[in-house]
Structures are given as C-alpha cells and as structure tokens.
C-alpha cells in the first residue's frame, strides 16, 4: 500500500504484477473538499489501515480522531471493516469528519471516579473553609455518617479497580470535551451529597438503625450484583478483541437478572444509589439516583435496541433496565 496527496485522480483499477489495487479518495464530509488521494490500496485493507495512511499526509488528524463514512451524514465505518467488503467500486470515496481531540477511556474513567472519591473525603474530614473554623477536622457523632463514607469510598474504589482490571472496552478513546461534562456531573454531585451528609447539623435517618441496616443490605447486594455483571461481560470478550455477544446468565445467581433485562449492571447501579439514599436520607443523594437512573435508562434503551438489531435470536423477554417495565 502507498499513499500520496492530493494530486492524481485515476479512476481505473490498478493491475500491477498480478496484484489488484483500489483507489481511495477522502473528502471532507462538510465541505466536500478533497483531502487525500490514496492510490494502490490493497482491496483487503481495513479502515484502520486507511486511517493510518491518511494520518501520514495529515498528522494533526491521528487515527482516533478520524471518522470515515461512505455517506457524509452516514454512520462511521468500523476500524475492522475491509475495503473490498464495502459497497464501493474500484475508486472508493470516503467522507472524513474530525472527531476532535481524543483522550483514552481509561484516563477518562480514572479522572471521573478518582474525583468523587477525593472530594467526598474532603467533606468527611471537614477540611477548613467548608463548615466554619470551629468544625475544622472534627468528626461526626453519627455512626451512619462514617458508614456512608465507607460505602461511598468503596463504590468508587471498586469502579476504579474495575476500570483498570475488569472492563474490556471496545473504544480506545473518547472526545476530550466529554470529560468536562462528565466530571462536572460526577464531581458536582459528589460535593453536593458530601456537603449535606457530613454537615455538623446533619440528622440521621428517621427509622434509625433499622433503616440503615436495610439500606446497607440493599447497597451491598447491588454492589455485588453490579460486580458480577461486569465479570460476566468481561468473560464475553476475549482479551484484545472487540467482539460483542449476547450476555446470558451464568452459574452466579446475580447474573440471572440477564433473564429479564439487557443491562443488569445499570439496574444494580441504580439499586446501590437507592440503598445509599435510604441510608443517608439525603435529598441530593435521591436526586443523584434519579438523574443516574434517567441517564442509564437512555443508554440501556440504546444498547437494547442494538442487541435486537444485531442478534435475531435475542431473548424476547428482556427489557432494557427494569424488568417488564422499561
Ligand atoms: N452512576 C452513574 O451515573 C453511572 C453511569 C454510567 C455507568 N456507571 C457505572 O459504570 C459501569 C460501566 O458503565 P458502561 O456504560 O461502560 O457499561 P457497559 O456499556 O455495560 O459496559 C461495561 C463493559 O462491558 C463491555 N460490554 C458491554 N456489553 C458487552 C457485550 N455484549 N459483549 C462484550 N462486551 C460487552 C463494554 O465494552 P464496550 O467498550 O464495547 O462498551 C465495557 O467494557 C456501569 O455498569 C455502572 O456501574 C454509573
């Protein structure tokens, strides 16, 4: 394979020494300007390889920033798509869109999750300039406040460890701008929740220890469930691959929720926050649970739709996130 830009426009199939080559021209999806002309592209070249060739002439658009499409407004082609399997002639016209500066998913998740963990602890330890000088570095007299700190920290440490050791993501990067949006959401809510739960005037839940115990059981049950689903999803995808399969219940009873919903990890995640809201009886926690539930419902519906589209034999009983309802 070789590439040069822009220059020659040859609409014939190259036949060189028995080898057949294709021509690929890359146009700007918005302006239709010609950005690149690649001759001698092997028919079995993947989109990832074409992106690498394009980068040689336009180093500012590294492969993760590129979206290549067959139609200017169509879907992005997958990196593993092969040129000869696409509905193109000997001269393939691809349309390019710049996805913007990218950042790795792992960095994104670490930033998103380390933030709430640390922010919550600042309020828990009542560092200066939060509640007034007389409360600096004091400790709450309510045991539920200490339990809530353990649960909150446990949740985010679990997520950090899962991000590093469990999840097998199919996308290496995401747009840099998303990190500002996501961090505002996670950091902002963590600060708001922590401010009230660790406030010197915080009042413990109405039904005392009974309420806290019940809430703790719900929280731990859902954390275990969420972790079990993450392990099940990891086991669906061999290391280094991007394969997507239908998840089914395994021997682990927590995964049996796959019988009824497509994204049980989201169901358990929402359950954990409901448990935390009952434990702390704190309005910002209830609102965080509600916003998280709405967001995860939107994603779960999208994932459910993709499963139905991709797999003809997808189990019909499943709902996206709440059994039989949603
Ligand atoms: N509190 C909140 O607001 C909130 C919001 C979102 C997430 N979360 C938490 O973060 C966790 C991870 O979120 P997520 O949105 O990344 O979850 P997800 O889409 O269910 O993905 C979890 C992991 O499993 C992989 N995966 C999913 N379906 C698969 C399939 N059919 N075959 C093979 N691999 C598959 C994903 O890879 P891909 O890279 O291919 O997707 C990813 O690595 C959630 O379970 C939840 O606990 C919390």
TrEMBL record:
It is found in: Endoplasmic reticulum membrane. It comes from the Eukaryota. The chain crosses the membrane at residues 103-125, 184-202, 214-233, 253-268, 274-299. Residues 173-326 form the 3-oxo-5-alpha-steroid 4-dehydrogenase C-terminal domain. Residues 24-98 form the TECR-like N-terminal domain. The keyword Lipid metabolism applies. Its EC number is 1.3.1.93. Keywords: Acetylation, Endoplasmic reticulum, Fatty acid biosynthesis, Fatty acid metabolism, Lipid biosynthesis, Lipid metabolism, Membrane, NADP, Oxidoreductase, Phosphoprotein, Signal, Transmembrane, Transmembrane helix. It is an enzyme of class 1 (oxidoreductase). GO terms for cellular component: endoplasmic reticulum membrane. GO terms for molecular function: very-long-chain enoyl-CoA reductase activity. It is a multi-pass membrane protein. Pathway: Lipid metabolism; fatty acid biosynthesis; Lipid metabolism; sphingolipid metabolism; Sphingolipid metabolism. One of its GO terms (biological process) is very long-chain fatty acid biosynthetic process. It catalyses: (2E,8Z,11Z,14Z)-eicosatetraenoyl-CoA + NADPH + H(+) = (8Z,11Z,14Z)-eicosatrienoyl-CoA + NADP(+); (2E)-hexadecenoyl-CoA + NADPH + H(+) = hexadecanoyl-CoA + NADP(+); octadecanoyl-CoA + NADP(+) = (2E)-octadecenoyl-CoA + NADPH + H(+); a very-long-chain 2,3-saturated fatty acyl-CoA + NADP(+) = a very-long-chain (2E)-enoyl-CoA + NADPH + H(+). InterPro entries: 3-oxo-5_a-steroid_4-DH_C, SRD5A/TECR, TECR-like_N, Ubiquitin-like_domsf. Involved in both the production of very long-chain fatty acids for sphingolipid synthesis and the degradation of the sphingosine moiety in sphingolipids through the sphingosine 1-phosphate metabolic pathway. Catalyzes the last of the four reactions of the long-chain fatty acids elongation cycle. This endoplasmic reticulum-bound enzymatic process, allows the addition of 2 carbons to the chain of long- and very long-chain fatty acids/VLCFAs per cycle. Belongs to the steroid 5-alpha reductase family. This is Very-long-chain enoyl-CoA reductase. It comes from Gopherus agassizii (Agassiz's desert tortoise).
